[in-house]
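Submission sheet (multi-component)
Chains listed below:
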Amino acid sequence: MRSLIRGGGSGGRDLRVDFFRGLALWFIFIDHVPGNVLGHLTLRNFALCDATEAFVLLAGYAAGLAYGGLLSRHGWGLAAAQLLRRAGTLYVAHIFLFVVFTAQVGLSAAALDAAAYLDELHLDAFGSEPYRALLEALLLRFQPAFLDILPLYIALLLLLVPALPLLRWPMLLAALSGLLYLAVRLTGTNLPTWTGGGWFFNPLAWQALFFIGCMLGFVPGGGRPAVPRHPALMALSVMVLLLGALALVAAFHRPELLDRVPERVAAVLVGVDKSGLHPFRLMSILALAYLLGHLVPIGAGWLQGVAAAPFVLMGQHGLPVFCSGIFLSFLGRLALELSDAWAMQVAVNALGLLALVGVGLVAAWYRLRSRGTPAPGGRGPGLPRTAASPTVSG
Amino acid sequence: MPVLRPVLILLAVLAAPAAAQTPEIACGAPAELLESEAPLPATEKAMQKGRLRILVAGSASVLGLGTSGPGKAWPAQLEALLEQRHPGLGVEVAVRGGRGLTATDTEALLLAEQQRNPAQLVLWQSGTVEAVRGLDLDQLTETLNRGVEQLRRASTDVMLLDPQFSRFLRANANVEPYRDAIWLVAAAHGISVLRRYELMRFWAETDRVDLERASREMRSVVADRLNACIAEALAALIRHGVAEAGAGR
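Outcome: structure written.
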């Protein structure tokens, strides 16, 4: 497996990014299987952010690295075309997953006790308006539960197409992205959905995190992004994360504590929304990234060890692993719907992780074979740094 | 989200044989799901006076459908239970709700009903329709906040109810954020939540009451029992809240 991992060592890619991306992908799989016992151990239980934020930040990083590199070498046209191709792939994957989801919900709904679960039957949108539901799904205006990250990813990549040249003027990009985020937070603007309300993940707000990732990943002259280590910022990050963890514990384990804080403070906590990427959530993920970036050394030995290898591999092939993860979580939900006893829990998690690593392995193998370079232990000197191949992570 | 819940449920399951000697309340539900420190002063006062009116509002599941008759729906069973436990107390449970109603719809219904004939205790169920249709979480939170505030300003007790559990719902809808929102609103206002989802999941997982797995001919029998269990759980929460209010006076 190690021979399939790109980079590592000095001057290669940042394995920390790959590792944490792999971890986030695994968490997304777990969090997408309600009833999974491991769901009590993922990031969302301890921080006011979860694997979605980590995934979007690191997806931005990968996009900045890949498409920023293309932009530098080949100009905007080619980079934009690649971005559109990637968005197209994701769209097709999303529609496929939508069809799978719809077929299963329809089948399950037919078996359900219609009288006692009247409201639940609404899940089967195809039951009442099949053609409309299909059209709305194609327009991304109908996003069933757990199929909401892919549309977000598609929208973010499309937003990056016009924003790509701005990577050369990061201050301008940061200002524009920040302004849009502020405007969205203040006005509550969101993309519309068929069922009313907006997208579960509002791309107009989430772009802020994505573009921060892009700016971190895009380093025109090569080398590494430099975010200076400052003791005050480190302390602030620790405080942000501690406060978030405390708030979560208070709200879910000791609600009587909330009783003692003024209702206004409690109301702020209640208002920490995920759809519009509440500033607390944004701060939490940035604090987490800042801390990990400075506390985990870039050449940490364990990153190249056996235990980290599966996650690094998954992270290096984010796109296929992510899409398979969404599909696998769907199978996991079906399995737990049948039985959520321990045996099934173990089976779902073991098989799920194995399959995810397997997808990473196949993607890495295919990438090597399709280039005809066995390249043991890392990126050969002649290989382009990034993204022109469809199997590259992004 | 909470880490403790599965542990507590597991402990409850392990402790079940030991607890078997004591009579089970609410179909053997774990005690932590039936306890509440939130006082119900208006309810307590009404019970002192001998007349208690409870208003139940929500989507289809408050109607107790699928049972063998209207008397078996949980609001009716709750009424019977309270009258039986408090001889001489006149209890009236009114129900306003219907299929596909969002919290915004039921807020309007219950506030109008409160104008007409005020109840001392409002049991407000929400979240199912929102989760199933993927509606705005913010809107649910805002509606609940506003409604709870208005009711409490009028010195009405409020208790929230979350969606009913089914493996179908868990597998196909993203219920968790909606349940969290209901839980957080209740915590922020210091009111209690009937954690129906947790309760029903516990009953299903321990094979006590499992409507989804019931055979077609047994369904209405199991639905009757489910509604009885929910009524008992509510009665337990109300008992705690009334005791808490009595102690606080």
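Remark: The CA atoms of residues 166 and 187 of chain B lie 25 Å apart.
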